Structure formats: structure tokens, C-alpha cells
Amino acid sequence: MRILTWNVQWFRGLDGRVDVARVLRHALDWGQQPHVIGLQEVAQHYPGLDGAGEADQVAQVRALLPGYEVFDAPAIDEWRPGRPTRQRFGNLLATRLPVLQVQHRALPYPADPTVPSMPRVLAALTVLAPWGPLRVGCTHLAYYSAVQRLAQAQALLAWQHEAAQVAAHPPAAGQEGPDTPFQPRVHAAEAVLMGDFNAAPSDPAYQVLVQGREGQAPTFVNAWQACHGAPLPPTFRVHEPGADPVACDHLLLTPGLLPRLRRVEVDAATQLSDHQPLLMELEGADGV
């Protein structure tokens, strides 16, 4: 099972060209037709973004990914007087696995008037992996505000702990019967969390995610570190002259998935975004 994450910068390459088809073609080819694709910075009707125009990039992704089910989770969804359309900006999950549940959630947005900011969101699905139910989350944390980024990381930690507790202690069976909101449903304890965390390994927000709560085992493990035994190479501003590259895009997984981890790769060569994509492969139930 292959999982790919990429901050696509509204599908704008370093050559200034915005081309959804070009980026997705590369993701499919390099990722060997991933089973799950998590994208950040997908725009709908944002002419102020260089080259984006009024395009609905979510609709374009749906049209260009036959065989995938596409779930968008805009962190921003707003309308301004005088505009012909709503404007949406955020994350997107596409998968060719069966989707059991959709559970997007807004992330904390505490006041921080000292810096620019915008709302953030977690796109979250429960999919049927080859071995059983698995939660996958795709997110993009605050860039300028360390206060907001830390609060958002803490919320992601709570998301995992809550889901694991519900999986271990599922709700009582209701009397309403099948096909009602109280019908039994699948609960997955294990999860993959991917995206642009805007946090290098030294950042407190990153540390919250991989260190977990005091007295407890780590909540998430960095897949690259676990697979390679070395720090993740830079994934942002890698090809920008004079820039300071940083490793801020991560593939994290809960410790229970470590026996399934087979490989993690970074495409360090592509210049189709200002970020580099990452790919993780997990072993299925049949050993392949």
C-alpha cells in the first residue's frame, strides 16, 4: 500500500506555470499509482494566487483522477460581496481504496495578532487497507505563528488519542437498528498522518507529535527516520537559489504500523512545486 503526500503550492511549479495535470501525472508516475494521495494548498477561485486564476482545482483533480475517490477539506471556505463564487483553500485526499468514514475537522486557530495567519484543517478518512481499517490524515499547519502551530499539533495528538480510545472501547450497541446514525461502525486505532507541518524536527509542534504525552509511548513515529535511521532531508525551498532549505513535510505513523513499513522516499529532483513529495509503502496482509 503506497501513500503519497505533497504540498503542491496550488499546482505552481518553480517555472511559474500552474498545471494541475502536470503535477498529478508526476505524482501518479513517481508514486506508482499510490493508493492514497494527500495534497496541500489546493485552491478554488483564487485569482490573487500567482497563476491560479478562477480555476476550481478540486474539480480538476476529480476529473484527472479516474478510479480515485476525491475528498476535499478546505480550511478556508468564504464568500465576499461582489465575487461570483466562493473561495476555498486547503487540503485534499484522493484514494482508490474503499472509504468507510469521512471525518474532517477544523484545527485550533488561537489569536496571534503579531503575524499573518489563516485557518487550518485536518482532512481525515477511514479507509479499508489490505489488512483492515486505517485512518489517514492530511494536514497543513500554521506557517508564521508558532502559537497556532503548537495548538494545532496538540489537536492532532488529541485526534489520535481519542480515536484509539474509541477503538479500544467502542460505543454500546443501540436499539435503533441498522441504517440509522447509531448503527455500529468501524473504529481504527492505527493512523497515518501526513502533510506540510511547517515544522522542522527541532520545532516544538513536531516534538509534541513524536514525543506524545508524558509517561506514555510516542504517539507518532517519523516514517523516514524509522526506515532510514537518519534525519529527513530538506523538503521545502530545495531548489530556490539563496533559500534556506528545511525538512517540514512529514509522513508520520502510529507505532503499531511499524512492522508494515517497507520504504519511504523523497523526490528531491522535481521542481513542480516549492515542496518535494514523499512516498511511503506499507506491507499488506498478504505480505506484498
Description of the molecule:
The protein is an alpha+beta fold. 19% of the residues lie in helices and 28% in strands. It is built from five helices and 13 strands. It has helices at 20-30, 57-64, 146-168, 204-211, 223-228; strands at 2-7, 36-44, 69-78, 87-95, 99-102, 105-106, 121-129, 132-140, 191-196, 221-222, 249-253, 261-266, 278-282. The strands form two sheets. Strands 5, 6, 7, 8, 9, 10 and 11 form a seven-stranded mixed beta sheet that branches. Strand 3 (69-78) and strand 4 (87-95) form a beta hairpin. Helix 3 runs parallel beside helix 4 (204-211). The protein is globular.
Low-confidence stretches: none
CATH topology: Deoxyribonuclease I, Chain A
What profile does the largest beta sheet have? 7 strands, mixed
- CATH C-level label: Alpha Beta
SS element count, helices: 5
What string, H for helix and E for strand, traces the elements in order?
Answer: EHEHEEEEEEHEHEHEEE
The CATH superfamily bears the name: Endonuclease/exonuclease/phosphatase
Alpha carbon gyration radius: 19 Å
Shape: globular
At CATH's second level, what is the architecture?
4-Layer Sandwich
